[in-house]
## 1
Amino acid sequence: MLTLTNVTKNFGGLKAIQSLNLEVEEGQIHGVIGPNGAGKTTLFNLITGFAHPTSGEMFFREGDISSNKPYQIARQGIARTFQNIRLLPGMTVSESVMSGQLNQRITGWKNHSTKNIRRAKKNVDELLDFFKLSPYKETFALELPYGLQRSLEIARALATEPKLLLLDEPAAGMNEQETEMLAEDIARIRGEGCTVVVIEHDMSFIMGLCDRITVLNFGMKIADGTGDEVRNNPEVIEAYLGK
Amino acid sequence: MDIIASPALQIIVGINIIMALGLFITVSAGQFSLGHASLAGIGAYISAVLTVNLHWPFLAAVIVGALAAGIFGAIFAIPALRTRGIYLSVLTLGLGELVRVFFSTFEYTGGVAGFGGMKGTTVGIVYLTLLFCLIAVGILMRSPLGRAFQTVAADEMVAEALGLNTVRLKVLAFSLGGMMTALGGALYAHFMFFIDPHSFNYNQSVFLLIFVVFGGMESMWGVVLGTLILTLLPEYFRGLDQWRMVIYGLVLIFMMAVRPQGIITKRLLRKVGRGFAYINKRNKELWRFESNSKS
Amino acid sequence: MLQQLINGLMLGSTYALIALGYSLVFGVLGLINLAHGEIFMLGGFIGLMVVTVAQLSLPFAILGAMIGAGLIGIILELLCFRPVKRSYFLAPALSTIGFGIVVRDLMVNYVGSEPKVFPSTVQLPDFQIGSLLISSVQLLILGASLFLMVGLTLFVNRTSLGRAMRAVAENPVVAQLQGVNVARITMITFFVSALLAGAAGVFIGLRIGKLSPFIGTSVGLKALAVVIIGGLGNINGAMLAGLLVGMLEILASAYLGAAYSDAIPWTLLIIILVFRPSGLLGSKTNVDRA
């Protein structure tokens, strides 16, 4: 579904990503781990168009997305969340999720119709239900407790009806209970037909959840495989423990 | 109460609100333009030339003036796309100044001496236009396009990640906002009979921004209220007219320190809305109670 | 032509002095002080009053103007910066706009909108180098401007106060942790930037021979364009851009006419903002700060 071929990203003199080859298969939950500064968020920025590769190519469902703008990539079906939650001030929970529906056929002149708006509202309600946010429909997004804010951000990303969802450290700051619920939610998302890529630090979270894991260090891929394969990889162990 | 009856004041208030609403549209997408008065000026000059030199009918001239300003608004947006925050504001300030310099040196419209001969604005026309603008802005803000504007204003990166073409949206915000402000400008020209480049300079742009910010830029009613208060206040205290600008300045300083979101905010509107709903509910309960006890 | 360059230098040094003030406040506090132009105007009038009302000589005028402007700068900080919550990014800038309007309008009410004559109390000979005529006034102004600019650079780079200011510019939180009294430094920043503006006000009065309450807006705003052209927050950039824009403006005025020369700073600004938003000498980080 998503293929990165020999992608390199340089920022001035800094090699953020080096000759990365990555393959994400449809219907999987794919994890990306690595120590801080390994280039994980840069990877997400590249995939979603907020940064462009210095060299190499990126393909999403057979289409070349290497030089696409972020909004184009979003419309093609890749959605993301951000490391520090970026919820919009001044919006309620339902408005926040609705903002994800805005590009789905209802901002253009020709496509503006009551039927589409009704459909959009229905989608929003379904998503709120999915994440158990319905009771908070009219609350201002920033007034929610932290864990629910995270869920809201994911809900909003899903509102764009993506085929691929990128989650940037969704478990950050969560306790065990919340992390478990998050893992369940992600599994349910995959169940609805959406492929998921997750960046995380929490090893056990990733190991327990992901079908496949890619390990980055200093912008390079040092391992790629199932949880077991990665866990026993000596380079990975050194990267994490040999510091 | 004599003052309210003055048609001149009624017209000025109406025109100010129309222009402020235009800026409101642009600001709703996060574009704090300090050059909007110059767009009003473009609308004013173009419509003036059409009626005075080319003898066009009043209505057609005003509409064309506004549409032309809409195009310039889009042109303004192009360099603005590369800027954010205060840089954007200073850029629009610069663009506004360039427009002013242009009209100061353009002999066909009289240069610095100005241009005259326009008439045709009446109270009725202004308030009809105002009604139209209020309805238009109201619909816009609740529409997906308006919501898209607000998303861009809140966080551009997120807006892009949600699939919104921020470039197109920002250009639209400048264009539509410019059109409405220019509508006010054209009406102004045909009311004042005479305009010159200084009628639409940086100061006027600042006033428009103050109107929007003071009243509350989260809602259209905030803009209306803010413009009303700030335009009428110096009129009511006659002696204050001379100190009008000082008042505006002090108001701005005060508001920024105490309530920078403006007088009317979304939160306030919800509380008011909830208050009404509560009163409604209680009324219904009491009514039911009474009709029950009667039977 | 050379004469024009000298005139350009004069205008440029005025721009540079005002631009330095903008740059200082932005560099240290991340705020654009839109009342800066009015402080410059006020300094000029204070200097004028020192000379006409108090009947004192020029050096006193300059000093008085600087200190007076500095005090206004402190009031500005107390009203428009300190009480304003920084969460709303445009709020302090808008507040300074308000302050500027108040100062300007009070001045208009006080002295009228017509320009007032600024008497030249300098009775020194003029210099003639070839076909160039440089009046002693011009030389004085250039010298004083240079002195102030060098003084500021030394202050920022060599003194401990300057170091504290730079620390706050880098990161106010860390600076605070290192023991810097950020509130005090903020006030000092406004004060110093106002000092420069005040002096510039007297210089421009001397140079053109008259002073209007509106020069804060006309000259002050153009100086804002200058500072962005040079790179907000960069002291050398402000000076370089000031001189550059000043000269270009005078040249345009000579060859295209005064009305068109007004467009020069703004045209350059737009070009810079589109092609090189960080300014001639600025750094990318400052662009994100705004």
## 2
Amino acid sequence: MRDNFLIFLRDEHGQIMPGSIRQGHNVVTNYGRLWLSRLLSWKLLGGTDHPWTNLRVRWMMVGNGSLPETPAVSTLSNALLVDGFTTYFKEVVSPTEFPIVTGVRYRAVYGVGDLSVLGAVEVSEAGLVLGELPINPGSSASIVGSSGVVTVTGLVGMNPLSVGRILGVTNGDNPGTWRITRLLDETSVEIDSPHSGADSGNPNISWYEGEEPGYNNAPVVAYKTFEKIVKTTGFSLEIQWDFRF
Amino acid sequence: MWACMRERGKLVPGSIREGHNVFTVTGRNLLSKLLSWQTIGATDIPFTNRRIRWMGVGIGSQLEVTTVSSLAQPALVTSTDFLVPIQTSEFPSSTSVRYLKEFATNEITIAGVPVAITEVGLFADVVPANMGGTEDVGHTNPTDPTLKPTVGSNPPVAYKAFESITKTSDFTLEIRWELRF
């Protein structure tokens, strides 16, 4: 296949803006390859099978930076806010399209108000991000330590592949968000900052499997950089991203 | 794919077979569906939850092409089952997975008669069938290993044919299957 990535602008009449088409091959990142090897496999077989991961392609993210297209890419160089304030992710259009039996196409359509809400923006890179909703609820989890190495234990049912954030919520605890920095084992992780809550024994933890839309350094499973496109509120931006096997 | 026989743990000389598999159209279709959500919303719904779950062997052979839709001549592993669960999935590197199955001395050679194994396949499945994948619900006999894998409704996702290995009830047959991404 010659190209598997296509991006272009459309005007208010749905016409493709001349000169706005960019296309080419993406790179599947090391994280994407790791995810694929886990996704295809069962962790436990039995009366009810348990997967290594349930994460699937859910979001797209675009930016105005550029990185060499190598498998070592972990995230975008400089992600752009979709709404101008809090959200970096755009949901892919569902249901997903299958142009051929052995291929899948992800599409995202940024509306006229997306990205360029605060003025014209340059777009020069894009990535695919994994996710799953609803949030996987934690149970009986505990935060251990309040300085130095801080860990969360008792994450029964945690996905070992999870790179998502841990969300500490309610129950007298200071609501907070921490990023998992290291997987210690299948029920405990190290998080990125000391926990300041007083009731560290029962913080009622829940966590995302996948990423939060407000996180601009989310790992991407595939990456593409291209000659910049300038998006204004006069245009929508469309991306088509194909995988063929 | 790498296969060998062992007798009381020791490698049987001349029993190693190795080579590249073919990932079938069925497997490629599974990958494209497994990567994707069918519906995105408050509760995401997948197309499928099927993953590589079974291994089956056969005594036939056919061209290793993507259109392979069954084992040429499947062999019973137990007295009733053509397919057996994969024993372990391990990850030799961060971007690969290895499936392992060791067929015991009393498997395949059920009647005590030597069996010349010449082909092997990987099969996908989910137990229970209805775990939310919209395309899994109508799957034929999704948890029934007695389903003879010559039947077109249960095609392998990966296939390998090789020079025959004759398994007797003295030997175990070890098959390691590695997929790299």
